[in-house]
Amino acid sequence: MELQRALLFDGQGAQEVGMGRDLCEADADVRCLYEEADRVLEMPLSSLSFHGPAEALVQTAVCQPALFVHGIAFFTLLQKRVPSFRFSVAAGLSLGELTAHAAAGTFSFSAGLRLVKTRAMAIQKAAEEAPGGMIALVGADKATAEEIAREARLDIANYNAPGQLILSGTHQALALVPELARERKVRKVIPLDVSGAFHSRLMHKAAEELRRFLEDFPLEAPRVPVFSNYLGRPVRRPDEIRSTLIHQVEGSVRWEDCIRGMLEQGIGQFVEIGPRPILTGLLRRIAPQAEGIALTTVLDLQSHEHTLLKR
């Protein structure tokens, strides 16, 4: 019986200085991808990814394209090093959903660069016009997190895993969370070091800008189902993909639902591509028995090559 495998891509927050440099040193085709990205994006993305500075790489307008390029570059190298590699479904956290679509053939790398640039700049602009932030609730269940969100007038940005939910909104509303969480005996509250209230109503203008861009943006049916963060299930029709990518900007990321949906479809191996093994960590919280492989460097690819050959 053929192994059912999911391919996962990281989102904003996984970036780190040096990402992609070893990929470029290992392969000429990867170097070409980075050169194309520098040209299409009209920014020194390669240099910022490889050398920083960190304060520049963390900016949304830089970070999101950097992660997209890193994901497709690593996927390209994976296909060359392990030609028999196959995957049954694809998914990504937030920005990573766009990388998953590119890997699945929904749009080309070049078109994806334009899409990611538009999305990133719209989100950064919205964050500057409507300042806000995000806060993690550790140990809270869904009902408790939703109750706190309603009382503080916040949105649930991420349903990441059992006991790990993220709230998003204005700084004034976020200031109410610690006391509300204490009253409900939530184990820990952690303010996140982010530049905006992502996946919340404060991103509405960004979603509308992305809607206008996507009106004439060509989309194909992906070769494999791609799980939607917004719906928590796979999407395949171009019209549905267009709609979910727009709603995802201001809607909740239902990552736990995505993983559970993949498990229900018989996925037996989850392969994460990104600079840091964030999604593999969430997988362990959702389904400790599931097989997860994190590919962050060329050395990881070499060490897991035998496992990735399994079919």
From TrEMBL:
The reply to whether Acyltransferase figures as a keyword in the UniProt entry is yes
SMART domains attached to this UniProt entry? PKS_AT
* Residues annotated as catalytic: S94, H199
The entry sums up its family as follows: Belongs to the fabD family.
Species lineage: Bacteria, Pseudomonadati, Verrucomicrobiota, Methylacidimicrobium
Protein name from the UniProt record = Malonyl CoA-acyl carrier protein transacylase
A molecular function (GO) held by this record is: [acyl-carrier-protein] S-malonyltransferase activity
Q: What is its EC number?
A: 2.3.1.39
The UniProt gene name for this protein comes to fabD
Look up and give the organism this protein is from: Methylacidimicrobium cyclopophantes
